[in-house]
Amino acid sequence: IDAMAADAARRRQDQLTKPRGSLGRLEEIAIRLAGLQGTPTPSPDPVQILLFAADHGVAAEGVSVFPQAVTNQMVRNIAGGGAAVSVLARALDARMEITDLGTVEDPGPIQNVRSERIGPGTGNIAREPAMTDEQLAAAMNAGRAAAERAVDSGARLLICGEMGIANTTPATALACALLDLPAGALVGPGTGLDQPGVARKAEVITKALARHVTSDRTPLELLARLSGFELAAMTGAFITAAQRGLPVLVDGFIVSASALAAVRLQPEVRNWLLFSHGSAEPGHRRIMTALAADPLLDLGLRLGEASGAAVAVPLLRLACMLHQQMATFGEAGVSEA
Amino acid sequence: IDAMAADAARRRQDQLTKPRGSLGRLEEIAIRLAGLQGTPTPSPDPVQILLFAADHGVAAEGVSVFPQAVTNQMVRNIAGGGAAVSVLARALDARMEITDLGTVEDPGPIQNVRSERIGPGTGNIAREPAMTDEQLAAAMNAGRAAAERAVDSGARLLICGEMGIANTTPATALACALLDLPAGALVGPGTGLDQPGVARKAEVITKALARHVTSDRTPLELLARLSGFELAAMTGAFITAAQRGLPVLVDGFIVSASALAAVRLQPEVRNWLLFSHGSAEPGHRRIMTALAADPLLDLGLRLGEASGAAVAVPLLRLACMLHQQMATFGEAGVSEA
Question: A134-147: b or e for each residue (b if 16 or more CB lie within 10 Å)?
Fold first, then answer.
């Protein structure tokens, strides 16, 4: 991180024709990106969205209102241009790469989808580990390789998103384990469980935590036992992004659980994370607090698919344009306070 | 307002490939705009920004950290492309019209600035009325005519902004009078007063309220006595926008005071107002509460110039694109919950 570039950006902000600090978090974004990108002209563009899909054995416990077939159906919809993230990526002119890391049924080749299947979904965490150590390594490496591709292709901002029916359950279990909190502190309705459904989901997560969590478990062990292929891939992507100096705009609840795991594995990852929005999923707030994060938006989103991060991209763009294009007091002949 | 168009939009949102309600306030925006614009394909574009500038006699009381000459200097800067709103209008491809309603010194012709000067600034509200009834009518008519031009040119969203050194003082006084609150409940630092400066400003506002407010004053009388040319123009613009069926995206503190006056004059105006952001100016929250408004963004902005409303435009655009371009469950072959 380039402290001199950040300082220069801060000085420039104080010379732009506006009361000092009056652009609030937009100033903060420009200064932060200047430091992360090491340049007086920060910009989020090109934006790279990495979309990881996978299925989850714990769906068998009835923790989602949607049938598991929806994961593959939505992968097709995302690739075909009809999903929220498809519309947003197109509207924002953001690059998107979609990777199937292991849905229950192999859908065969789908245009614009990379097939890097690790297995037909994970194990049911209420009864067994989500994945083996080898599968965890494969998932994390898939994410790391995707982040490498993003850097190599010139991306200046990374967004990760996920699609996987039932994946708020492993995300909640992982976050509970990492934060040493009970299921009840983080559990929520996901895509739309009713109150009895949330209670059942909490029981499933409690069972998973009892089975897999002991005080000596490392974050990697918790990822293998409690997470999912897409969650682990995003953790890997975030670690590589930080190592390669690529800023990350974190999406909502599930992505934040992956980001939390990345920070636990490599604390310096935290410096590379910007937080896009506060999710309607209630446990998100606890994860944000643990990461000392104050998301930019609060729009009651709970869709996933990187949609919340995508919606925040214009704020980053406008912040950078204001930083670069506004006149200084001297240039404009405006008197200072 | 077209309730059938809003209902149709709501039904469409429930058929799009996402959990119901999972796009939160983005769904709400699309449904709201569909109802206001009376169409299944709502859109904020073209966006029209109306920027009104004027000076304020109360500046003589030392209520701003900037000298009064800055109003004219900033009008030049806005017209010349160097101000925040200039950068934002360009980035967003929004139309902008700048009108000088009366700065202290007539700057002569400025390219891209309409000169509709009502006087060399207002009277000092601590000692006299801000303007005469004739001046109030001229200011409101200037705003009404600008809104008419916006409608006639095909604008589908109206944003008003202001530039006027010291204008948080009349805005605060006006809001206090309309809300029957003392100065201390709404006063704040504006462009950057320190604590003693805020205390002095509160005294000035208290004096103005004592001089001009009685229980039988109408909103029009309060506008004449306590506001400013740009504040009254925006009130007029909002009334015309509502009458002509043009949705309004309200900027921060000062614009909200004008909007409050418009709603007091014509309660149905409220239906046409969307609220862009919560200002860092502390009194803004009280005005939002009075208008039952829940602004979309909270970025600590306190610049004015329509900047906060402009920053929210991409959210409206993305909300409308998602509404129009996402596939339905049926179209995409995705199973429902």
Answer: ebbbbbbbbbbbbb
